[in-house]
Design a protein that fits this description.
Layout lengths: L2 H17 L6 E12 L2 E12 L3 E5 L6 H8 L7 E6 L2 E2 L4 H6 L1 E4 L11 H11 L4 H14 L15 H12 L6 E5 L7 H18 L2 E6 L2 H5 L3 E6 L2 E6 L1 H5 L5 E7 L2 H11 L5 E4 L2 E6 L2 H11 L4 E7 L3 H9 L20 H17 L9
Parallel strand pairs: 3-8, 3-9, 6-7, 7-8
Antiparallel strand pairs: 1-2, 1-4, 4-5, 9-10, 11-13, 11-14, 12-13
Helix pairs in contact: 4-6, 6-7
Length: about 375
């Protein structure tokens, strides 16, 4: 074989690797992914992988780069540089294959309020080339799973916020994707509704062995993930199972506030040099090995009047604060505008106008077959 042939084969092999990356056990692979908007860097060289069947979470505040990342993985946005593979397909070179193998629930509601629940599903099925036979079977299954079967004939405009979110999840599953992307799926919902939504998601995951990629700023949602990546300013600051991340903090956490925090901090450093103490807003915080034993000693030692005191175990909020130096709910003006979410409501409305004739002619065919 000539040198020229060797180079040609090497080039073809490289192109094949770029288009497809079949790695058994991994649903998503990301390598040094970057996205810039002029001078703003929304995603800054992140790398990670998601296992098949895993619930993987992106935890971070608004503007951290969560939505930008999910948009790239779902082929709604192009990276500035780096590589990303979803179900083994390169998100740039094999975008159609990626789209056909995933389901996506946006931050914003993108349902057509003037259509019924089943009509919204039917429109989505048309876009994904789902046959009528498959649609009838899938429709019944997903609506039953999300407890919306009895409301399938109702217009979406009559639904509550929680019902709309459940319908969006059902819509994302109508073609039974391998990966379900959830971009802050419960934002704006009350805690009871959020818990109910997650009951549906986990029942579906168990039944279909779905891989779930979640972005969230709710700590209790991050807790239920198999692994989470803490993202801030476009960078992944930490990635591990929630319990392992908490172990980074160490022992128990004591948070207290005094009438004179300056004097209290000075006395603490003098009497307990083995422990670190730091300011968090108007409070002082320290981590100790045995909080139950240390707390009475601390109360006796500090002379300024103690206004409040709390002893607790480490949480993901503590992990985030330790890693980033700020609370997850704090608003960072410098990072505003990074997460450029895409609202597909206008797109679906445009498609409605084009397909409404088809739906009208086939309205009888969409009737439920019990």
């Amino acid at each position: 074989m000539t040198h020229k042939n060797i180079m040609l084969n090497s080039s073809n092999s490289l192109e094949s690797v770029e288009e497809n990356k079949n790695n058994e056990g991994e649903a998503i692979q990301v390598e040094n992914l970057k996205k810039k908007y002029n001078r703003l860097t929304a995603v800054d060289g992140i790398s990670f992988s998601v296992k098949k069947g895993e619930v993987f979470g992106f935890l971070g505040p608004n503007g951290a780069g969560k939505t930008t990342t999910i948009n790239i993985l779902c082929t709604l946005n192009s990276p500035t540089s780096g590589l990303a593979y979803v179900n083994g397909y390169n998100v740039i070179r094999k975008a159609d294959e990626v789209r056909s193998s995933i389901g996506l629930v946006f931050q914003e509601i993108t349902l057509d309020n003037h259509l019924t629940a089943e009509e919204n599903l039917y429109l989505h099925a048309l876009l994904y080339n789902v046959s009528r036979k498959e649609f009838i079977q899938s429709k019944r299954e997903v609506l039953k799973l999300c407890e919306l079967w009895d409301r399938r004939k109702s217009r979406v405009e009559t639904f509550s916020g929680g019902m709309k979110r459940r319908l969006e999840i059902a819509r994302a599953l109508i073609h039974w994707p391998k990966i379900l992307f959830l971009d802050e799926p419960t934002i704006g919902l009350d805690p009871q509704t959020r818990n109910k939504i997650w009951d549906y998601i986990f029942s579906i995951r168990k039944k279909k062995n779905l891989t779930i990629f979640l972005t969230t700023q709710y700590l209790n949602e991050a807790e239920i993930c198999d692994r989470i990546a803490i993202i801030d300013h476009g960078k992944i600051a930490a990635l591990d199972a929630p319990e392992n991340l908490k172990k980074m903090i160490g022992g128990d956490i004591i948070t207290f506030r005094c009438e004179d925090n300056d004097k209290a901090e000075e006395e603490f450093k003098k009497n307990f040099p083995q422990y670190r103490i730091k300011r968090t807003g108007k409070e002082l915080k320290t981590e100790v090995d045995s909080g139950d034993e240390f707390l009475p000693v601390l109360v006796k030692t500090i002379t300024p009047k103690i206004v409040s005191m709390e002893l607790r175990r480490p949480s993901l909020e503590d992990v985030f604060l330790e890693i980033t130096g700020r609370q997850i709910r704090e608003k960072d003006k410098e990072s505003e505008g990074f997460d450029l979410g895409i609202n597909f409501g206008p797109l679906f409305n445009l498609l409605d106008n084009k397909i409404v004739a088809t739906e009208s002619k086939n309205s009888q065919k969409v009737k439920d077959e019990n």
